[in-house]
Amino acid sequence: MKSTLDTLTGRLRMKQLQLLLALDEHQSLHQAAAAMAMTQSAASKSLQELEGMLEAPLFERSRRGMRPNAFGHCVIRHARQLVADLGAMCEEVAGIRAGSGGRLAIGVIMGAVPDVLVPALEQLGQAHPDLALEIIEDTSLRLLGLLDDGHVDLVIGRSLVSDEPAKYHYHPLGDEQVAVVVGHSHPAPRARSMGFADLADYRWITYAGHMPMQALLRRELDLAGVSFPANAISTSSAFVTVTMLQRDPGLVSLLPIGVAALFARQKMLRILPVRLQSRQETFGIVTRRGGALSASARQLVAILKSVPSTSAEAAAEV
Prior knowledge:
The chain has helices at about 1-10, 15-25, 30-35, 40-55, 70-95, 115-125, 140-150, 210-225, 240-245, 255-265, 295-305, 310-315; strands at about 60, 65-70, 105-110, 130-135, 155, 170-175, 180-185, 205, 235, 250-255, 270, 280-290. It is of the alpha/beta class. It has 3 domains: about 1-80, Orthogonal Bundle (Arc Repressor Mutant, subunit A); about 100-175 and about 280-315, Periplasmic binding protein-like II (D-Maltodextrin-Binding Protein, domain 2, 3-Layer(aba) Sandwich); about 180-270, D-Maltodextrin-Binding Protein, domain 2 (3-Layer(aba) Sandwich). Strand 1 (about 60) and strand 2 form a beta hairpin. The radius of gyration is 24 Å and the shape is elongated.
């Protein structure tokens, strides 16, 4: 292992890593070489040198092109991370040289946006007003892929959805409380408490099968003895959900309580008094194990750890 590491340290070139990424994208040595402004023979030689250093073939060659094998997928994943980290370093150095604050990319699940991420960014912005921010909201599984590839510096989400959760550092922040919501003018009775059975006549807006709230809704309906609706409307967009709830009084859905409370305060949604029986999903700060965080990322992590979630309080105020 040490001899291989010494060989890579001494001979590996960034151009070879970029060639790997081009081959993964184009699956053709000719097209990858063109994208890299190299001759095909030079690209072939560069790949052979890399495979020689690693003592393993990285691609399966066929008439359909070049597809990475198990070794190739592994090396490409790390190559993408190395290239992304180097790019981030160059951007940050340029930002510091220009007197600005560099760049920070954050992946976040929907429920953590209003009461966790936004207050933390307000604090971070006071200390680093020139810091460029990129915020990507998606499911934990997709965000972990972006973290693996180096597209985001950290994720506010769940690491247990990964097949390999041990490759991440995880610091829990709280539970993602979920509310049952309808449009503000929905005719549902304003009772002190309701159950899922009381909503049997309404049409559900649900989420894609890979999203935790889909599984949560199925559990809650099952516990209430209610069948999962065959005519459900499926979406992964909170904007679509809120817009449809506002326009159609026959619809009902689930939303993270911080998001629901935000729209309820604007008189766009109403949170129904339905108590969920399932245990709520925990979320937290996820970073790459062995990865180095920038100064701004470390400061954001420190802020997130010091500021408790206010979702429950926000819902109580509505």
